[in-house]
């Protein structure tokens, strides 16, 4: 892949994509799934000494892990979904955690199957062409690759393109079902919207938070076990696990599909237990599990800002990135010498117009981006970039493995003073919240009425 900008938003999108589920394979013969051997009354199986095997066993055929209303979920489906999650977490998942993840993956695949079946029952289907188009956009926008390159990458980590496409189809079918069966019956009055707008104006200048949440439901009987599971998730997250991937796989809230992202909210909109905890967190900090009515929550403060106030990090930047890579086997000494020459070259650059010619002299590459927000850069670079004048460069940064690079500031459009959200925006937010709550109830009903045969 060519060198490029790795913004926080792109990383989040990539993590979301890597959390997608695996596809169901072709159904196996139903009779084979239910065949049993019955012992006699004394428990003696009465096995022959030299049995003759009738039929041929194909080791490439995987037996079903579950049959959901007649549709098979195989061990391969689970393995491929699990591979996506492990990859999203940098491959650092302990064996014990993989066992727990495997069970959660199976539950997610069951929910996904129920959603597709329910959509199909009311003549809602997603054409394969639509799924393929979405897959192609994921490949280009999130990974900067061609669809064929992404397919090869997925196969290399033990998953497949079919895994990603199965989840894409499930999510598209479910959203269309909600738009038909739930959204038309959600009513938001003008008074509710006006009241919300008045509260926002009164809160101008106060902080609001963008929070990710993983919610695990619990009752009196299973509270201790759920708490233990939540503790293990927190432990994995602190060791570098992807919050987005864990939210997609574990969270029982309706926001699981978007990696647990609650969007921009004020603390008053959260339950008191979560609000009190979030108030003491900075951006990038994690807390939990927090006990509240109905279960436990793990929260992650993605970002903070002031209500209806311009944020310098919303400035739109025009940047050029100049980078050099080191050949495999380059020693630390050789890398240091080359990095020093690179740093000296950067000091001589007088504005972005010289970037290409200066880079050519050192064999460096240049990538330009004219539409990137400061807040989408890695946190460690945000303050540095915002202090630069047009034409100035950051200090060199990188490593022997990743190469060394600098960012040149070629232009900056500062954000205008934030305007009040429109009536339609507030109305849409309230509607979305109510749709999500109804969707959670809808899925619970599907689970309750399903016929599921576990292998």
UniProtKB/TrEMBL annotation:
Residues 206-303 form the PpiC domain. It holds the Pfam family Rotamase. Keywords: Chaperone, Isomerase, Periplasm, Rotamase, Signal. The keyword Acetylation does not apply. It comes from the Bacteria. This is Parvulin-like PPIase. Residues 1-35 form the signal peptide. It comes from Novosphingobium cyanobacteriorum. Transmembrane segments: none annotated. The lineage of its organism: Bacteria, Pseudomonadati, Pseudomonadota, Alphaproteobacteria, Sphingomonadales. GO terms for molecular function: peptidyl-prolyl cis-trans isomerase activity.
